[in-house]
Amino acid sequence: MSGTARTRGTVRAHPVRAELLRGLAPWAGVLVGCALGLAMALRASWWQGSWSETQSALRYAGVLFGAPLAGAAGCWQGAREHRRRTVELLASTPRGPLARLLAAALPGALWSAAVYLLVAAAALLACLPYAGPGRPEFTATLTDAVFLVAVTVIGHVCGSLVPRRLTPPGYAVVLLLVFSFTATASSGVRHLTPMDAENVMSGSVAVWWQPLASAVWFTGLAGAVVLAHAARRRYTALVPLAAAAVAAVLIVQTGDRMWRDDPLSRREVCDTKAVPEVCVAASESPLLPRVTAALSPLTDKLADVEGAPRLTGLRRETRPGEAPLPELRPGLSVVRGELIDATGYLTATASNLVAPPAVCGPPAPDGVSEVPGAVELWLLPSSARAEWLARQRGWAAGDTGELARLERRAEAAERLAGLPDERRRAWLTGFFAALKDCAPGKTPPL
Fold first, then answer.
1. What is the distance between the alpha carbons of residues 84 and 86, in angstroms, rounded to a whole number?
2. What is the pTM of this model?
3. Mind telling me which residue stretches traverse the membrane in this protein (predicted)?
4. Are 441 and 368 in contact (CB under 8 A)?
């Protein structure tokens, strides 16, 4: 009995388990989690409702807040033995320097990665009730977690090599500078960190091997730093360094070709009951009823007009017979699946509807622009028309020429509204036919 008790008393917890449950690592995880959670919560209206925007916001938060904090915590942990003056004492223990480094560095790195994944799961769940078709790219989220692990481990080595109190904040600042440089680089270098401002937004998805290549780049670089610092045979650092170099060359050389258009953003979903037809991208299909309802005052006026352009929300160059819908951007025009300014959306659509197609080149000269402007005003409800005119008159105060053009446009819109229905339909049919032929000036005067 006493022998069993004595045997149990000699069993000790693994150092990694002790570091995971006590010390700096849990507190570093809590700090990173609070920063990430606050950053996501403050901008919830900008990402909630779009899978790609949610993951973009997670990536920015992880790079701008999570990585510097996790890296600084790793630096502070790396200098712990120097602060305690136990470096020589630990060197005399049977455990090698590589094992000691990993036992001290991995808990903080794992805490940061786990907290990031927890915040990501919460954000994706918050996005679920408002998101449309498609799904999140889970491999991208896992790659971001690997990135946090690599940043923390490299920070631990930096803290061990330079055990100064200014090393943690200095390392965090250096990380931010590196991220800023790579994000603004014009070449494929910007893809070497998750801070990719061009392709993380909606409308693009990565090829299948991009997360894998990024993970090899991050882990290879961190592994090379660790082995070069703590391995007994330091030349073994060449193996992960070579893997990181191959992945980096592949990423840089491929560049933007690692991204392709989201198939859902190229496919239309249309409301065929509306005349003219109203279409949005399949990725935005839950918003189609809101868009159709917001545009109903406009489509009702054009229901019997032949040749009225169909309204499309696809992000491409419009073709003859089409007019682009304003872009549906989370946080700007859409918040949690609702249009936040239906009148503004209607006004912008009316302006697009009377503009010449992109294939026609520059807009018509000022002498011709009164006719499309009059149609634009007539398409608006009376309240929106009065609001638009009041705003334009305020902006043009003191400019007699612009004020005169506004008055002529308003008078032309009134004449169009006063025409008999049959004559107005015939005139609008001729207007849209001339617009399609890139010759709005050939429309008969009102």
1. 5
2. 0.84
3. 20-46, 58-79, 100-125, 145-163, 170-188, 208-228, 235-252
4. yes
